[in-house]
Amino acid sequence: MPSQLKSSLFGILISALTVNVVLSAGPGQAELRKLKLGDKMPEFSLADSNGATFTYKHNRKRVLLIAFLTANQQQSKNSAADIMQILAGLPDKAEKFDFFGVMSGPPKKDFLGPDERDSKVAFPILLDSQYKLWGKLGIIAMPTVLIIGKDDKALWIRAGHTFDFAPALRSNLTYALGIAGDGAPKKSVKAKAVNNTTVGARVKRHLKMAKMLEQKGRIDSAIAEVRKARAMDPNLVEPALELGGLLCRAGKGKEALDVAGKIKVIRRPDKARLLLISGWAKRQMGDLGMAEKDLLEATKLDPKSVRGFFELGQIYQAQGDKDKAIATYHRALTLVFGER
User: Fold this and answer.
1) Residue 110 burial (CB < 10 Å; 0-12/13-18/19+)?
2) Which of 120, 248, 285, 338 sits a CA distance of 20 to 30 A from 160?
């Protein structure tokens, strides 16, 4: 490949790779019409689609996580995916607890995405076709998720799915299970969603600032902002993935690989990003064979990954395979500009 053309390709692709999307946030809710924080959860009994019955009784000394969902609502699907990712990331030392989704009828096969269906975490659904439990609690919005403590009292209630849903749920669930970190709520009854919204808003601000700094080429400053976001909740996936990508952009492959090794993901897009970071970092460290393997899997999961094909081109060029290098560089350019 002529050096002038190669330089032009690199410049075009690197410029194109600075584009990204900023997610929006929204407020939460910390009470229902009939159940407030600190109130006792009423006893109930519901069956699942297979006829098995779950009965909730007082004085069980066991945490209950329960999510009221609607089959055709995207927010319910997003909540279910977040819940499964959080449960998959709980440490082995976590004590046993009960978890159920509640729906008016059996969910469709596509309610959970392919990554959630392949997860080792089960998502049992209880059926409440006559909305009896919904009525007992005063459920007025979907989705609504509750954490009931071992004392049978409502520890956390959230209606709707907003930016801070996952960190707020993780914080309160780990608190209820006795495995919380420093960022956990101090008092269970006062652990209202609004308190966690502050954390979510701060995480969002740091990520926004990091994106602005990245677009200005101030990568080290962007890394510092993402580190601040990650420090608020080390278990959050988005800041960790952002940090890994920025470290790769800074040429810090080993550090990026260390970050990637600690990230647990379930969703297909997150898996693609994680594999991209891993392959990108390994390419920087000279492990071209493993880098190619990760990047091929990443581009399979995300066929529109410009950076993925660019990094593959870098590998093939370093290996002296000009045909493959040209083909993958062309694929990356096509994704940016379309067919010509």
Assistant:
1) exposed
2) 120
